[in-house]
Amino acid sequence: xxxxxxxxxxxxxxxxxxxxxxxxxxxxxxxxxxxxxxxxxxxxxxxxxxxxxxxxxxxxxxxxxxxxxxxxxxxxxxxxxxxxxxxxxxxxxxxxxxxxxxxxxxxxxxxxxxxxxxxxxxxxxxxxxxxxxxxxxxxxxxxxxxxxxxxxxxxxxxxxxxxxxxxxxxxxxxxxxxxxxxxxxxxxxxxxxxxxxxxxxxxxxxxxxxxxxxxxxxxxxxxxxxxxxxxxxxxxxxxxxxxxxxxxxxxxxxxxxxxxxxxxxxxxxxxxxxxxxxxxxxxxxxxxxxxxxxxxxxxxxxxxxxxxxxxxxxxxxxxxxxxxxxxxxxxxxxxxxxxxxxxxxxxxxxxxxxxxxxxxxxxxxxxxxxxxxxxxxxxxxxxxxxxxxxxxxxx
Length: 395
Known about the structure:
Layout: H1 2-24, E1 33-34, E2 40-45, E3 52-56, E4 64-67, E5 69-70, E6 75-79, E7 86-94, E8 97-99, E9 107-110, E10 113-120, H2 127-131, E11 140-148, E12 153-161, E13 173-177, H3 186-189, H4 193-202, E14 210-214, H5 252-262, E15 272-277, H6 279-290, E16 297-301, E17 307-308, E18 311-312, H7 322-333, E19 338-344, H8 350-363, E20 368-372, H9 378-389
Parallel strand pairs: 13-14, 13-15, 15-16, 16-19, 19-20
Antiparallel strand pairs: 1-2, 2-6, 3-4, 3-7, 5-6, 7-8, 7-10, 9-10, 11-12, 12-14, 17-18
């Protein structure tokens, strides 16, 4: 029996050693690796794959694809050129199949697309530093349900409370609206709102403020998986064939009333701002015309300015009518503190914004304009939030 036990133990030791050798043959892959020179290296273990590439927003206009090279140990690798400080997103393509990088646990969802993210930063003064978590006082990001009598729904939104919020002092409010296909998680996840505000407030560059990020789809209560409709496919069109009881603009004061009743807000015009990207920019423009004396600050980011209240105008070059003229006159005669327009040179909505600016110039209405490189992308909208938030509530 003793000899048998020795034999069994010897076998187990040998088997374990063989197993460890087998496991040892699989490299421990790290990806991405941000190098000291600003280049970024991606690694992916796939010994039987025939072709692997990485695609990311590595330039300012369009996605860029890098073919990866297979090493002797079965690891595919590719390195970018030096990247500027920024938050980047990417994915892998393996033999024609798009996947996320299994070595990178940081993933964002944009409508129905999952992508990995990483941040390049070189100093405390760059965008990468602004978008990351730093050792500063942190605000609170909450998912909040509210009642919308206008839409006849319980709806969800995201609310950011600054670190200084204590339920006693009153704070101004920025209402921040997402684009087509987005939801109440978009600005928090893709826009890095809490990171940007935490850092700007800590540096004294922005006033402490509440930021409200509602769901801008009037036929959709909440982000996928967070309401009774179930786990629908988030493609931006899931409920487009369902008629809404009212437009987002018409129901917007339900949100304002809820926020003023639940939180310590500066519940007057000087304490309110509204801004949005793309479709949300169109909503912002509509809100400015419906409620010209409710908000003092308006920010149009890559805005779909040809949106009518509750839908799209039939013509891409509609002529202003008497109602439009009256709305705009009422808005600008009320003297808002800021009407801000921002867009990238390569944005497909540039002509719409140019048409709006021409109208404003013809009427002599005062506004601020910011134009930068790039297109209709989150990289620009994070910049616009950074700039716009620093202009607010400076009394």
